[in-house]
């Protein structure tokens, strides 16, 4: 059967992609950030998956404000980098995994999570920047990627609890797939930042790191964080952190969706790497890698 071996969590700031594309990674402003991802790039080389299930939010490229699905899964064979107003990023096209994506959609929808099935869409910096941070600048991405877009742009947005439970359902779906695949699940977005209004530029280091502690060590408590806490403490765009809870809910120390109460779970995941940096275009950058044990 397929299995989830690890989860990766990272911010997806568009300026990071521009710094990579324009060769600015060694400039004094950017160097500390990219140095923090060097261990992650090596980890990725040493732990290459068969498929990445990548949770991100679309930034009005695949979906406009006319139509915003709460959860959308990409089931196509390939996805092109989006033109976000200044041309597409010079990165490889994303190769999908239609068989696994369709299986996950079938399983998750039968568990009463409503997904939008997307057979054609372009993918923006929310998806390509994490791939660049973890994989560098290859001629092709190291494996197929299943894009999973979450609405954290237009209220109402899904709760942390619903995202966490969705992650549990995704794990159940992956483990019922009949091919032997090593799957990683990535949660992206965040951490604290606000792009507009009187609090534009807000960064809350203390809250970010406390939330990251909680997500790693007590994910149930992190999932119970109310929306108002994200907005008040982490800024209007801090709500993107609910996407990290999808990846955390899919890990082996959390009961799979529908498991009976008291069902055995796996050991706590191993923290392979953790990093936090500010600023990156007036945004806090958080990052962690968790590995399932056994």
TrEMBL record:
Q: Which CDD domains match?
A: PCA_45_Dioxygenase_B
Q: Kindly list the GO molecular function terms attached to this UniProt entry.
A: ferrous iron binding; protocatechuate 4,5-dioxygenase activity
EC annotation from Swiss-Prot or TrEMBL: 1.13.11.8
Alphabetized UniProt keyword annotations: Dioxygenase, Oxidoreductase, Plasmid
Kindly indicate whether the keyword Oxidoreductase belongs to this entry: yes
Q: What Pfam families does its record include?
A: LigB
InterPro entries per UniProt = PCA_45_Dioxygenase_B, Xdiol_dOase_suB
The Extradiol ring-cleavage dioxygenase class III enzyme subunit B domain covers 8-283
Protein known as: Protocatechuate 3,4-dioxygenase
The organism of origin for this protein: Sphaerotilus sulfidivorans
